[in-house]
Amino acid sequence: MQVLNVPVHKGKTTSVESVISAVENLYKLRISRNQQDSQEFLHLIFEALDREDDILKKTYAETKPLKLAENPFTGELSTQITCQSCGFRSPWKKEAFTELSVAVPSKVFSSLSYSC
Fold this sequence. Notes:
The protein contains 2 helices and 2 strands. The chain is an alpha+beta fold and 116 residues long. A two-stranded antiparallel ribbon has the order 1-2. The relative contact order is 0.12.
């Protein structure tokens, strides 16, 4: 993914074609130029960057340990469900994520019809 390290000069436009080609070569697949799901493409790029981090860490683990910056797009999602009828709370559930999809409600308030 060296192509992502090439600086872009102010006032110049750049094509995404080199990035798409690099991802295709990495995963040995063909990405359609007609229509591409941007979330899937972003996932492929994040996965490629994680691979690069792993390779760097393994390469320099014994000689000179590297301190690489954390991926700013990763995190941990914590959820807990509370019953509105009896007040029961489930234990906190934590999940790591790379991409986070957020559903936008159509109403300001919503509730579950199921009660315990």
